[in-house]
Specification:
alpha+beta, 316 residues, globular, five-stranded antiparallel β-sheet, 8 helices, four-stranded antiparallel β-sheet
């Protein structure tokens, strides 16, 4: 029974109670000290019904409490009360004729996401071909890359072919002075999907370097203040810790340097000259900052992926 119906029926009983009381009062003047049979029946009814109403209200309250939403973690996307927008090629195809170079550049790159739709892929290829000779070098280069992916030619140096047959790449190649968009895409079994998104402060992908056997992938990401290095086993879905901050913490502990973590996770440290020493060991030169860059330690870092062993030495 709904709460409104329950209250309405209780109200009707209250009215009956009042009426009975009035009638009983009239009779009481002639027969004081006696209750009418109607009055007794109404009171008995009210007691029974009140007990039932209380039980029903308690049941409804318990049911509503049990139905309350359980939220483990509230994301910014959740608070927008909107589902993730599905990819829609039409708006990007329309943007190609907007005459706005920024819109065109974005559209050219996003049209790579038409890969999984055979008809959409063919239409995108047709619409992208005129942009190969665009006056903007950035648009022309992006069109060439998009066409290479959509046509399944796979000749671009920005495509990294892995040992498991998958292809890993980023879009918006070198769109900024700092690097490329911070999302890795993967084509596996002829299906395109976003494989990994780097969280802030990793705003750009600076470099992607496969291991010699093409089983591991070293990725350098950066903000405009710091750089970060991570090794990824794309086939098994295993990642290393972030190596620049790990090296900074390890060296700082060894040399008893102050180690403060910033709220924005910037480290003001950098990595350079990445190279694979073998199929499992990555080496790079690190410039590690301490005490708000008052102290800079230049070191060489090696990391063995499977054993999770890091070695740090002074850079000579």
């Amino acid at each position: 029974m709904r709460r409104e119906e329950l209250y309405r029926e209780i109200g009707q009983i209250d009215e009956a109670l009042i009426e009975a009381a009035e009638q009983s009062g009239a009779r009481g003047r002639s027969r004081r000290g006696r209750f009418s049979k109607k009055w007794i029946a109404v009171v008995a009814c009210l007691i029974v019904y009140s007990s039932t109403a209380t039980a029903l209200l308690a049941t409804e309250y318990t049911k509503n409490k049990a139905a309350e939403p359980y939220i483990r973690y509230l994301t910014a996307e959740d608070m927008e009360l909107a589902p993730r927008v599905q990819y829609e090629a039409d708006k990007f195809l329309q943007a190609l004729s907007s005459g706005n170079d920024e819109y065109v550049y974005i559209a050219v790159n996003r049209l790579v996401e038409s890969f999984n739709d055979p008809q959409g892929r063919e239409l995108a290829l047709e619409k992208l071909k005129p942009f190969l000779t665009n006056d903007s070098a950035k648009i022309a280069e992006s069109a060439a890359f998009a066409i290479d992916v959509l046509s399944k030619s796979y000749r671009s140096p920005y495509l990294h072919k892995m040992a498991d047959g998958s292809i890993v790449f980023a879009l918006f190649n070198n769109y900024s002075d700092y690097g490329t968009q911070n999302v890795l895409w993967r084509i596996k079994d002829d299906v395109l999907e976003p494989y990994f998104s780097f969280a802030a402060p990793s705003m750009y992908i600076k470099e992607i370097l496969p291991s010699p056997d093409r089983k591991l992938l070293a990725v350098v990401t950066r903000s405009n203040k710091s750089e970060f290095v991570q090794i990824m086993n794309v086939e098994e879905g295993m990642n290393s810790p972030e190596l620049v901050e790990s090296a900074r913490i390890k060296l700082g502990a060894q040399q008893k340097l102050e180690l403060w973590a910033r709220p924005d996770h910037e480290n003001y440290s950098y990595a350079d000259r990445l190279a694979w020493k073998d199929n499992d060991t990555l080496a790079f030169e690190g410039s590690l900052a301490y005490n708000d860059t008052a102290i800079i330690e230049n070191v060489s870092v090696t990391y063995r992926f499977r054993d999770k062993i890091m070695e740090i030495a002074d850079l000579k």
